[in-house]
Recover the amino acids of this structure.
């Protein structure tokens, strides 16, 4: 007979009282060099007595998990299967992992919990990875174009015959050590906790009632890193690093919109990372969700003006701000790369456009529309007045 699913309790247990879940929860000593001394991060919702953090794993996806549980599509108390989740590339440990002041927003042991916390897992603790490391291939038409123009070459290691680039993909969930985060922002931990509590609508009362919990799993999205070459070379100061922190942009990166030049900057950085890895270095692309998404994105010029102006095509840059890839040789301050590439048509799609004034994007769209109508009128004399309506 099929096992009867557990019946959900009808009463609600608050997590804000210090007496809830204190016994049996592993202690976290942030900055301890030994993982067993540091302790695992346990944000489980199945056994509250094991919890030693504020919040839950998976960040904003916790809301979707709640919807699945409420709809009966996910069993209450479901535990993740950690089979074959070990990193494809071993990372660390490094001396910085034993310094509480060096790392405050991620769990350095988050990729290898199934190895370093095997004893806790055997005892039934619900410990989940916060970092995933795997292999992937990147297929881009711009890489094929670079091969056709002989700017790139196939080497069978970084760039394959089918024009795909071999990368190591690292997905990271945020894990905040609140004392360290407060110090980074120059505020007291009490003020930080109160602001986080109030500005999230009181979503996490433990922020102000559980001072014994110093680790917070915020309900925000994580970050994905793409490494070209050997991941271990990222920690070697003698290896040349080609890196770009890229602002994610669905409009340009995904749909190829010409309202900004995010995708050309990204593809140019990928090309430079491939070249750097082929020459014995290592490349790193770090997409960042800094810019507003959705509706507010249309107003990003008011919210982050320097960033918006910097991403305008070459003919409309203000102040000469450009955001190409940067190459760091010997981990010293690098230089913007390269002047010749900044003049490529891919980076300056409309070099004939006049400098934009206050309403930059509106003027650019008007110029594009008028030029397009004029081209159609030249092709068909009957449409000579098409541009004047």
């Amino acid at each position: 007979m099929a096992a009867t699913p557990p019946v959900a309790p009808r009463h609600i247990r608050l997590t804000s009282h210090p007496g809830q879940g204190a016994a049996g929860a592993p202690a976290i000593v942030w900055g301890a060099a030994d993982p067993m001394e540091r302790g695992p991060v346990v944000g489980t919702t199945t056994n509250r007595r094991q919890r030693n953090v504020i919040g839950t794993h998976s960040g904003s996806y916790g809301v979707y998990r709640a919807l699945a549980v409420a709809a009966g599509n996910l069993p209450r108390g479901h535990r993740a299967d950690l089979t074959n989740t070990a990193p494809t590339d071993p990372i660390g440990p490094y001396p910085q992992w034993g310094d509480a002041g060096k790392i405050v927003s991620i769990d350095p042991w988050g990729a290898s919990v199934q190895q370093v916390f095997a004893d806790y897992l055997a005892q039934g603790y619900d410990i989940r990875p916060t970092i995933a490391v795997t292999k992937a291939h990147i297929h881009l038409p711009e890489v094929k174009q670079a091969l056709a123009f002989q700017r790139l070459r196939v080497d069978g290691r970084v760039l394959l015959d089918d024009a795909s680039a071999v990368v190591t993909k690292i997905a990271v969930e945020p894990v905040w050590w609140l004392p360290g985060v407060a110090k980074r922002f120059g505020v007291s931990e009490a003020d930080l906790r109160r602001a986080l509590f109030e500005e999230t609508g009181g979503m996490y009362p433990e922020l102000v009632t559980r001072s014994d919990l110093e680790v917070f799993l915020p309900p925000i999205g994580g970050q994905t890193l793409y490494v070209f070459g050997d991941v271990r070379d990222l920690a070697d100061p003698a290896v040349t690093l080609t890196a770009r922190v890229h602002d994610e942009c669905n409009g340009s990166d995904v749909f190829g919109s010409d309202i900004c030049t995010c995708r050309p900057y990204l593809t140019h950085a990928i090309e430079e990372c491939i070249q750097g890895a082929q020459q014995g270095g290592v490349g790193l692309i770090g997409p960042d969700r800094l810019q507003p998404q959705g509706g507010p994105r249309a107003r990003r010029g008011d919210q982050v003006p320097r960033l918006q102006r910097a991403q305008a095509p070459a003919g409309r840059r203000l102040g000469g701000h450009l955001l190409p890839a940067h190459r760091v040789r010997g981990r010293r301050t690098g230089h913007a790369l390269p002047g010749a590439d900044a003049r490529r048509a891919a980076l300056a799609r409309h070099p004939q456009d006049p400098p934009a004034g206050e309403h930059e994007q509106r003027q650019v769209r008007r110029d594009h529309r008028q030029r397009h109508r004029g081209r159609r009128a030249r092709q068909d004399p009957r449409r000579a007045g098409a541009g004047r309506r």
Observations:
- Residues 360-379 form the longest helix (20 residues).
